[in-house]
Structures are given as C-alpha cells and as structure tokens.
Amino acid sequence: MAVALPEVVEELLSEMAAAVRDGERIPDEHLSSLKFVFGPSAIQALDLVDRESVTLISSPSGRRVYQVLGSSGKTYTCLASCHYCSCPAFAFSVLRKSDSLLCKHLLAIYLSQVMRNCQQLSVSDKQLTDLLLMEKTQEA
Amino acid sequence: MAEALRRVLSAGRAAGPAGDGAAGPPLLLLGTPRSAQTSLLFAAALEAAGEGRGPVLFLTRRPLQSLPLNTPAARNPWRLQKVRFQYPSSVPELLQLLASAHEAPGPALSLLLLDGLEEYLAEDSGIQEAAYLAALLLDTAAYFSHRLGASGRCGLVVALETQKEADSDAPHLTLLQRYFPAQCWLQPDTLGSGQQHCLRASLESSKLSPRTEWSVTFLPNGEMKIIPWPTQASEPSPDKNCSSTESQSLTL
C-alpha cells in the first residue's frame, strides 16, 4: 500500500520482513512491539495470516484489491492503495473514534506481505469492478 | 493536484518544473463559492492538458452551462479536447464510474478532478460510505499512476464547498482530510468591488509544509488574475481594491 504508516510501524514491519527474508523466526520482541502498538488486533491479525486469509485479487488491467476472510467467515474488501476496509471496526474505531490506526484486516494485509503468504487470485476486469462495487453492500 | 493547481496559482512562476510527471498529493479544494472552485478546477484541467501527458477527467454532477474561464488556454481546442467531462448524477453512478475506470480503453489519465463532492455526500452521508467514496477516488488515481509507471503519476483534486475555513458543518471534513493530505482553502476577499470577485487561496501541501497564499480575482470578462498574497501586509487597508494591485493575468 502506498500509504505512509507511522515511522515506528514502518521500521517494525521492515525488521520483521528482514527476519523472514533471512529465514529466521520473527523475534519475540517484535511481536511484543506489534501488540504494544496495535493491541488485541495484533494477535487477531497474526491469526488471520496464519490461516492464510489474505488474498490479493488482480485483473489484466493491473488494478488490484485485497479480500480478507474474517474470523466470522465473512469476507471484507480492502483497497490496495489506501487504508480502507469494509468491516464495521474500521468504520467505528479507525474512522469515527480515531483510536486505532488500522483494523485487524488491514494489519493482516501488511503482515501477510511480511510473512509472504498472501494468496493471489486473477479475475477479469469486469469481475474486479463487481468486487469493488460489492463492497458497498457488505457494511454492517 | 495537486501540482497542476499549484502551477495554476503560481501562474507558471517559481512553481517547479512542469511536465515532469509530478502530480503532488491528492488535494481537497475547500471553501466558497462553488463557482470559483469550478473555475480553478477547470484551470487545473487546462494546465494538465497542456503538459503533453494523458487526458484529464473532469467529474461533476451537472453539465457545465458555459466554460468557467475565458483565458487563452480555455479557448485552445487542443487542450480542451484532452479534458473529458462526465456527469455522474448520483453516488451509485459515481462509484460505478470509479470502480470500472480500469475497464475503459484509452490512455491513462494524468489528472482526475471531481467538482461538488458535497452534493454527493449530502445524498448518502454515512461515514463508511463517505470514506469509501474518498478511498475509491484515491484508488482510481493510484491505478492510473500505476499504469503511467515511470512517465508520471495521475493527480487528484476534489472540490468540496464549505461556508468558512475549518467549517465543522462541512460533511465529513475530518474524515476527508484523512485521505487528502493537501488542502487549498478559498476564502472570499471582501474587498472585491463592482462585478469583480476576489478570493484568497491558501495552499498547504501537508500538515508540516508552510502555507502558500495567493489573491485570485475573477474578472467580468471571464479572465482570472492571480498574484501572490502579500506576506507583509496581510491585513489590507479598507480602501484597497483587490484589482488595483500589480497583477498578472493568467495565460495558460
């Protein structure tokens, strides 16, 4: 995502990515830092990544969108270019209350990139349009 | 923009290199009145159209009844034909247009403009709907930037009418500022006389960058004059006429 995260988060994700790249286990202190910054969402996001719940969907046009399969079995749409998730927690905690930086689904996208286990799916241009428009009906 | 609008306001002076593909951050054009926003968006469209890059898409709810400016650039058919107007009449139509932008054939856009965002937000004003509209505008511009690759980025300017600066009544202003790091405020300059229409334009490219200000005068003949806002005499004397200062006509 071409969105600026706070520097401390960028640095943390970068160090986690370096550990994965070197074939090492992600240090516990990084996971603790993640939990310190994101609270309970960190564990929930890691759980989503473990369950390979993040899918990057792309069409021949090059346009992309993420879908995250939530713990309840519901699928949420997240834009690839800026912070937006169709889940109720994003609307409430991130947009309305501004007491969270990201919802667990957006955090899971960042973590799936770090862990390199983001699923890939190709669809037609028309199907991608439908996915982007379907978002509007997903809200709680 | 953001960059195209900054170049309009800078009237080609000390505004950095043109045509280098820089687009600047997504920009929210705020303030009143609406007609001035439309004119400035149109000027930005003509500026971008003159750069030799991709076409410009100008979205607004209602068809324009006449060209908002009467400058040499506005009469230049070569530039005008690079500006494509589309008139989504509702939020679903606007979302459909943005969500399917990647299906349209043709070259990638160099600039995406939306006039009158408040008309769409008033109709469908839930916080998540507003966020999705803003995010989808950004996503569409990002898609065209991706297509442009090394040859530049697609700029984005969205106009939202408010009654005054930092207007808390403006629909979802705080939310929109989350998605649009750059903002340009237009405030009426009460010193305008006769049929002239004077505005003070204040541009902040980000929260950390200094504010740059201009005086914008719309003349009855459709021309637009822009001069830097005086930094020393920020409180003009009552007898000062906004058109009496040394001004430079915009010649795009």
TrEMBL record, chain A:
Annotated keywords: Metal-binding, Zinc, Zinc-finger
Coiled coil among keywords: no
InterPro entries referenced in this protein's UniProt entry, alphabetically: Znf_SWIM
Any one GO molecular function term: zinc ion binding
Short name of one Pfam family: SWIM
Residue ranges annotated for the SWIM-type domain, each copy included: 76-114
Gene Ontology BP term (one): double-strand break repair via homologous recombination
Entry superkingdom: Eukaryota
GO annotations of cellular component type: Shu complex
Protein name: Zswim7 protein
Protein source organism: Phodopus roborovskii (Roborovski's desert hamster)
Gene behind the chain: Zswim7
UniProtKB/TrEMBL annotation, chain B:
GO biological process, one term: double-strand break repair via homologous recombination
UniProt feature, compositional bias: Polar residues: 231-252
A GO CC annotation given for this chain: Shu complex
Stretch list, region Disordered: 228-252
GO MF entries: single-stranded DNA binding
Name of the protein: Swsap1 protein
Underlying gene: Swsap1
